[in-house]
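In the previous chapter we treated chains in isolation. Here, by contrast, the input contains two separate entities that must be folded as one system, with a combined length of 323 residues.
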Amino acid sequence: MENKQYDYVENPFNVTRRQFMTIGGLIVALMVLPSLWVRSLVSNRNRYILARTKGLYRDDEKAKIRVSHANRAVAGYYRDFGGKPLGELSEALLHTKYINRTHGLTG
Amino acid sequence: MCSEKMILKHPMSVRIFHYLLIVSFLPLAVTGLILYFKPFSGESMNLTMQIHVLAGVLLTLDAVAFFLIGFERVVLFVKRVFTISVNDVKWFAVLGGYPQKLLLRKKVPVPPMGKYNSGQKLFGICVLIGGTLLVGTGWILWAFPHNTPRETVALMGTLHTVFGILLTIFLPVHLFLGIYMFDDFKAMILHGRISYDEAREQSPLWVEKEVIPLNK
């Protein structure tokens, strides 16, 4: 607790009501406006992502072949050459291994 | 107990805000410089980042709490630092008389000042704008970088770096002058009080226009 070991204080009415409203309003406006700006940027970005997702789904609906096992070329590869999906030969030919290539980038 | 008349210059709420500011901003400045210059290996840099974030959260809580609880003091501070007169130009012309006092041991006439002198007003404006930007951009960079467009994140990163360096440069000047004005330093760090005579010497306009006797 603060003991009253002083004889003078600041006048609590240093700021008039009009000044308080004006300055306070300006402070709040200057805090809110950038927040609204960032919010609109984020929502615009999300709108773009949603539109792109919608476009991809639309393209998918229009496509004749929509899944890989219905693709005749893929089915032909397994029938004539690769054997079963996830078979030994297919795995050796089609699967890749992780290689860390970031060393060159980070120096 | 002292017998001279005292003025309450820094109330308890301001002092608590300032203590938390010291505890949070000093580690933020040090870790910020480390993050900028990257002198350590990966693990140490990770630890530095964690300390930076922790201190940033503390600074945010301190700023938000003071903004909500002591809003009238925020308004008063804004009014004071943005009230500019011809005295401020005159003050900057002699740099408050500090170089003459420190280097030449000479006292030059300084225009009368309010609670804050012109240098403190400039520092206050930088802290107010820079501090708010640092808190805002820091949160976006740490918590929401993937929700925010790439260009905006890059802009936030640049603003965070520029204002971080600016306030870090101000810090040693503030510390030196803060301790140099030892009565004011004790008032801010210890008890909040300053002697009437000292205040009339340092801040005559404040004493004349804003200070009133306490009705005990």
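DSSP finds ten helices and three strands in chain B. Chain B touches chain A through 32 residues (CB under 8 Å). Compare these points with the single-chain example from earlier in the chapter.
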